[in-house]
From TrEMBL:
This is Nucleoside diphosphate kinase. Its cofactor is Mg(2+). Its EC number is 2.7.4.6. Gene3D superfamilies: Nucleoside diphosphate kinase-like domain. Keywords: ATP-binding, Kinase, Nucleotide-binding, Signal, Transferase. Residues 1-17 form the signal peptide. PANTHER family: NUCLEOSIDE DIPHOSPHATE KINASE (PTHR11349). Pfam families: NDK. Belongs to the NDK family.
Amino acid sequence: MIGTVLAFFSLFSEAMAAARERTFIMVKPDGVQRGIVGKIIKRFEEKGFKLIALKFMWASEDLLKQHYAELAGKPFFPGLINYMNSGPVVPMVWEGLNVVKTGRQMLGATNPADSAPGTIRGDLCIQVGRNIIHGSDAVETANREIALWFTEKELIQWKPAIESWVYED
């Protein structure tokens, strides 16, 4: 019986470790200009996610075109690139259990009018063109975006002292 219980917890622990993933979150120029970068970081930290990379930068037009490549054929693409190049941004990488899905839920709908109160966009935005934040929509997308904005050396591996109070493993 004890062997079965230990085997269960071992499998559970392995599943928890496998579900820990990374996501790419970026505060857009409007979020930076409004001075709410700290509020956004605070929400992810309070949730229990681990920050492993962060930059404050003015993204080049080329980098932005690569980042938004799947939207290149859309009529709003030139305006999006101009807007994203209009001021500094804060790209970040967060790590944790199901962080991509949970991060998207924390952001709220792309259109702030459709975002629930309690979400970042629901609480802090009014219009879709000023929705303050970008978040990866899938693990594969997150991996591509992280590699685009950060080198492997910039992803800091560390273990917060509170980790055992956030995760059961």
